[in-house]
Design brief:
473 residues, alpha+beta, Gyrase A, domain 2, 3 domains, four-stranded antiparallel beta sheet, two-stranded antiparallel ribbon, 8 strands, 67% helix, disordered C terminus
Amino acid sequence: MRIDPTVTAAAVLPLVGGPANVVSVAHCMTRLRLGLADPTRVDEEALRSLPGVLGLVVDDGSYQVVLGPGAVTQVTSALEALLAAPTDGEPPDAARGELAGELAARGDLLREERRRRNATPLKSALRRLANVFVPLIPALIGCGIVAGVNGLLVNAGLLPWLTPALAAVASGFMALIAVFVGLNTAKEFGGTPVLGGAVAAIVVYPGVAKLTVFGVTLSPGQGGVLGALAAALLATRVEKWCRGRVPDALDVLLTPTLTVLVAGLATLYGLMWAAGAVSTAIGTAANWLLTTTGPVAGLVLGGLFLPLVMLGLHQALIPIHATLIEQQGYTVLLPILAMAGAGQVGACLAVYVRLRHDTSLRTTIRSALPAGLLGVGEPLIYGVSLPLGRPFLTACAGGAAGGAFVGFFAMLGDRVGATAIGPSGWALFPLLAGNCGWGSLLAIYTGGLLTGYAVGFTATYLFGVPDRPRPPA
């Protein structure tokens, strides 16, 4: 269902408390993210009933309106324009500022109370970890697709004059991903980004091959993104320690010097070695898991991924994916986890078929289904399966079946992976990679999707659709 972004933004604004209640506006792929001074001023029931609104999510300080891909960008722009433009009847600037200040103060108290009640150290750590890696996903996707196209051209023997250039375009970011991780880590944890990047750059510097630690010669890239993360965290700690102790007159000289020196030496003589051991263990464990217990591992991973997403725990997998991509060229976990989206699509199709007389719900499914097929499952989750309850569980069953299918072939030796994280569903096809031919990759991944669709549809059609009364004629 196509919506008018200006009309939608104009309808959303008063329902979230008006302009004075909106502290910040942002968006991701599917959600309009609003920072509100006083979340209690939101009319949730009216907001959920707006055409085009697929669901609401409250996550600590952020109030999120699920609109779906494409629409969310346009509505965000329209809302920002409304907030920037004065309207008739607005209070004077001073009065409006005073009102906003009062609301902000009240909102701070409410957010702090909610944070104390709901936040856990694990959730906070995972959220900050996601803030480090999520900004890298667009580059991973773009470079991954270019790498996939280049691989097809090389295998087909086409355009030999172009493939070296494509290889350079695809590989440049991955060669320096440690630097970007260092920049984002320092930024997220309160340090100077360029100092975090400078220390993380040591991990990929070719000259480290001249050093021997614990009897082992270091290699450029040893420790990968985990080593870069640890190095930048340490650099941030050292920098903060220096800021509180170095005289102001010497701060501009001593603080960056001590930060780079102390964190850099610790990276060379400890962190790279330790992170390298952890990275190797992650790769070994992932390969062992799939080659030894393929169908079982696929069933568990595919079946539990949707609940992990709901709890925010899927963020812990981001550095694991990044480590596998950096180490092996692809992550074998993502195609299995992507089966959860297939189960979700199958479940929502069954709801669409069974509840023929629920016009509103069927409209929501029609509008959210294209995004679901492309791997963006939030509109279907928050707009359909989660509110109904049982379809969410049968969607998990579909994801488990699809994951078991892909895991079975991994146990037979045909591993299917992805060269980037972020996309799933049909959008993952250009990013497929593995240890078998392109035809096998397509067949296995397609078979997993079809299995997820079929099992999710069947389980939901038979057991997952709640009884809803037919509207009167």
